[in-house]
Amino acid sequence: AGDAATLHRRHLGYGFQGLGYHFVIGNGNGMGDGMLHIGYRWDRQLPGAHAAGPDAEFHNQHSIAICLVGNGKRRPFTERQINELVTLVRQLQKELGIPADRVHLYRDIVDDASGPGRFFPATQVEDQLIAQPR
Fold first, then answer.
1. Model pTM above 0.70
2. Dmax of the chain from CA atoms?
3. What is the pLDDT of residue 113?
4. Cβ contacts of 131 within 8 Å, gap of 6 or more
5. What are phi and psi of 74, to 5 degrees?
6. Tens of pLDDT, residues 76-103
7. Is the pLDDT of residue 64 over 80?
8. Strand order in the sheet with 23-25
9. What are the backbone dihedrals phi and psi of residue 118, each rounded to the nearest 5 degrees, phi first?
10. What span, in angstroms and rounded, lies between the C-alpha atoms of 122 and 40?
11. C-beta separation of 24 from 65 below 8 A
12. In the beta sheet, which residues pair with residue 37?
């Protein structure tokens, strides 16, 4: 539960410079279901503060971080969240020329992470990505 402001405060508590994600998508519990928040890191084109581990600096510098509010280890994300995520990622792919094989889940970049959780519909999302955007 929560919203971008909640995450911002939590990240400040971790010693970050504020919200670590570029985008946040709400689940209806603190933020509208499927509502997209565009974070200050995107507006100012700043690196994220979302990755951990030995390659964290690289991923924070060279990745776009998208957070779905919720816990995919405990329950599915909402249909509206997933739809907004796909719409956002496809738009970013088109605008920035990002091929599907460069779109990663958190667990793909952090060795001991399970995020976004077992309830995240990875195959459904991956099937909707643009293989080679122009």
1. yes
2. 41
3. 77
4. 99, 100
5. -105, -30
6. 999 999 999 999 999 999 999 999 999 9
7. yes
8. 36-38, 23-25, 66-68
9. -70, -20
10. 27
11. no
12. 24
